[in-house]
Design a protein that fits this description.
Oligomer: single chain
Structural class: alpha/beta
Helix content: 40-55%
Strand order of the largest sheet: 7-6-8-9-10-14-15
CATH architecture of the largest domain: 3-Layer(aba) Sandwich
Number of helices: 13
CATH superfamily of the largest domain: Response regulator
Length: about 400
């Protein structure tokens, strides 16, 4: 294939992917690449206790890689994903990050889910001058020069959620969270926000990670009779929490509850019947109605099955790959400092809507409140304007 023919082929492939003619329907073309592939590390828990929430991020990342490769790759080079399993073990995350950067020489890593895994990886990324895209909502309190944070930090979701709840029926709040940094930081943000909107905290409880007994807390909730439960209970504990709330008579029809950590993926584990009527605040819901999301959902289901659901971290993982590709093209280089510099004010028409990487390496974006339906999807009842990230709020 001569140079002109190859250029026309790649342009045509890109146009077809952008139009949706090829993406997700199983007939993506294989572009012709003259240069060696560029390696991209995907580092997530594929096994262990966190895998139930984290493993699906790799599927979304691979979909983005497939789309980019079909459209000609990055600077004419195919992306070769190198997938590593952090195994829900923080030292393993650090070990695998070192392997990806030293042995595999990946251009960047998209990875981690929990803050503990990210904190384990950061010293390696900094020592080896790597680049990490972190695609999960988190507590903030961080601004690392080698990390790009593509989901919402805590102020973006917590403040918007509390303000929206206060505009609804009642202003008394019972705070329930798992006992680690994310829930405690979220509640440090929530409490002054509740005071500012004229509300009152009538209870605050924390449970160890993995705990499945909530009867004592539910009795306290019943006694306090809050207008809202604000929940930052995470992981498998939510299965027990939502089931026991329903069994106690506090289902979504009788008790208002909003979580900033329960997406469509978690509802699959909780059980759709147990979550009906409860609320969540996320940057992304699968039920969003826009052309980009329609194409994303269609492509994902065509590749992985019609019964699969997409939650917020999965969409942010997908966005991360596309943001890296755009930064490389803007920089005309895979060199990490140049890619980071090119990421400033970089925008992307994501499935969740327009997003932008800003100077503190976080992402300006909208958040939404959704109410869980019987089918496990969410009816979106509120959408914010674009919220600028503020990872170091005055608490």
């Amino acid at each position: 294939m001569d140079t002109l023919s190859r250029r026309k082929f790649l342009q045509a492939s890109g146009a077809m992917v952008a139009s949706g003619a090829l993406t997700g329907v199983g007939i993506l073309p294989k572009a012709v690449f003259a240069a060696e592939p560029v390696k991209l590390g995907l580092l997530h828990s594929l096994t262990g206790t966190i895998a139930i929430a984290e493993a699906a991020l790799v599927d979304a990342e691979n979909l983005a890689i497939e789309e980019i490769n079909a459209a000609g790759g990055v600077l004419g080079r195919k992306i070769d994903p190198i997938v590593e399993d952090g195994a829900s073990d923080w030292p393993t995350f650090a070990e695998k990050a070192r392997k990806l950067l030293q042995r595999d020489q990946v251009a960047a890593i998209v990875g981690c889910y929990t803050s503990a895994s990210r904190k384990a990886v950061l010293p390696v990324v900094n020592q080896l001058h790597g680049l990490l895209y972190y695609p999960t909502y988190y507590e903030g309190q961080e601004d690392d020069s080698q990390v790009l944070y593509t989901s919402q930090e805590a102020t973006q979701s917590v403040i918007a959620a509390i303000e929206w709840m206060a505009r609804q029926q009642g202003k008394t709040f019972f705070l329930v969270g798992s006992d680690y940094i994310y829930p405690r930081t979220c509640n440090k943000i929530a409490k002054p926000t509740i005071a500012r909107v004229g509300g009152q905290v009538v209870g605050e409880e924390y449970i160890p990670l993995g705990q499945t007994e909530f009867s004592a807390i539910i009795n306290k909730i019943k006694a306090a009779r809050p207008d809202w439960i604000y929940s930052t209970v995470v992981g498998g504990s939510n299965v027990a929490f939502y089931k026991q709330l329903k069994a106690s008579g506090l289902d979504g029809g009788k008790q208002k509850l909003l979580s900033t950590v329960v997406s469509e993926n978690e509802i699959e584990g909780i059980g759709k019947d147990n979550a009906v009527g409860y609320y969540a605040c996320m940057g992304y819901f699968q039920s969003l109605s826009n052309p980009e999301n329609a194409q994303f959902v269609k492509a994902f289901k065509a590749k992985y099955g019609q019964n699969r659901v997409i939650g917020d971290p999965m969409e942010c993982a997908y966005n991360s790959v596309h943001l890296w590709k755009r930064a490389v093209e803007r920089a005309q280089s895979f060199d990490v400092p140049k890619v980071i510099a090119a990421s400033l004010n970089l925008q992307f028409a994501a499935p969740e809507g327009q997003i932008e990487l800003v100077a503190n390496h976080h992402t300006a974006k909208r958040v939404r409140v959704g109410r869980a339906r019987p089918d496990g999807q969410f009816d979106i009842v509120y959408e914010s304007g674009v919220i600028q990230p503020n990872p170091f709020p005055k608490l």
